[in-house]
Amino acid sequence: MNLTDNSESILKEIELKFQAINQKTDVQLEGLLWSKPITYWDYIQTDALLSLQTQRTTLPDEMVFIMYHQVNELIFKMILWEIDQIAETKEIQVDFFSERLSRITRYFDMLTNSFSIMENGMEVEQYMKFRNTLTPASGFQSAQYRLIEFASTDVINLTDRRYKDTFDENTDLETSFEHLYWQAAGKDYHTGKKSYLLQEFENKYKEQFIRQITNFKNKNIWQKFTQLPEKDQLNTALIEAMRHYDYTVNITWVMQHLNTARKYILESGKGNGEATGGSDWQKYMHPKYQRRIFFPKLWTEDELSNWGNETTV
């Protein structure tokens, strides 16, 4: 058998690879004789992916709603994948940080720009019918979105603004969790009673959320930014990229979502104005009420005080 120098080099590398894990190279190579060539549909798992859309009604536009939200969840997973690379990189360098941040922001820009699919892609009459079958589920219950928040900033920046001044980085985790801004969408703070929406959400995900907060305490996007050399933290382009990410997630994305909800739930005149999960959705969603801000130190006092005002959005 005649082998080119390149083939011999590759075979040597393969042998070293399997020796390192105490595997026999000839057995591994023989296995290639019986393996099937990969196809696009097997690699992407197309059939499995396309089997995940199950309607609860016979209304065609419900399929638009389901698929759009599944796409969102896939993009959220891509965002978390990039954030993990930032978090797990020791002695992170500015070029690597900036490139991953750019990827994350592009994904959120795409999500924001895609809302016309929801806003203009469903008949109001159909939506107002099939949404009743979703109760008490709600987009509030997107766990990946919460994981993104926990991985982006310190938990104090996700605290309900009514209590933020009394908390700091030393506040115990359980107290912090019970006063996150989105708790207001599912809790009566006078009685302390949680809605079914919030109870079910926490039953499934609270332990995972607590782990995420703990794991990212010192390696969320903000913390990794502060670990860059001081000259890089003062880089105008990088600061603007951080601000763009913050503004996109906490104002642009939220307002697109809110305005779409307003169109169907309020302006259509066909419902009772209530969210499927029973939350006070306008106050929960509108950024001016909670002023959730990932990187408050990168904004001026005037920008912070006017955060989320629709005249500036």
Question: Count of DSSP helices?
Answer: 17
Q: Give the CATH architecture.
A: Up-down Bundle
- Tally the beta strands: 0
Query: Helix amount, in percent?
Result: 55-70%
Regions with pLDDT < 50 over 5+ consecutive residues? Answer: none
Approximate shape: globular
Which series of helices and strands comes N to C?
HHHHHHHHHHHHHHHHH
Strand content: under 5%
In the CATH scheme, the class would be: Mainly Alpha
Pfam families: Trp_dioxygenase (PF03301)
Keywords: Dioxygenase, Oxidoreductase
GO molecular function, one term: L-tryptophan 2,3-dioxygenase activity
InterPro entries: Trp/Indoleamine_2_3_dOase-like, Trp_2_3_dOase
Question: How would you summarize what this structure contains?
Answer:
The chain is mainly α and 313 residues long. Helix content is 60%, strand content 0%.
Keywords, separated by commas or semicolons:
313 residues, mainly alpha, Methane Monooxygenase Hydroxylase, Chain G, domain 1, 17 helices, globular
Structural description of this entry:
This is Tryptophan 2,3-dioxygenase. Keywords: Dioxygenase, Oxidoreductase. By secondary structure, the chain is mostly helical. It has a single domain (59-305), classed as Methane Monooxygenase Hydroxylase, Chain G, domain 1, CATH 1.20.58. The chain contains 17 helices and no strands. The chain has helices at 5-19, 25-34, 40-44, 46-49, 61-88, 94-113, 115-120, 124-130, 143-152, 173-178, 196-215, 221-226, 230-233, 236-267, 281-285, 287-290, 301-305. Helix 5 (61-88) packs antiparallel against helix 6 (94-113), helix 5 (61-88) packs parallel to helix 9 and helix 9 packs parallel to helix 11 (196-215). The protein starts with a helix and ends in an 8-residue tail after the last helix. The model has no long low-confidence stretch (mean pLDDT 90).
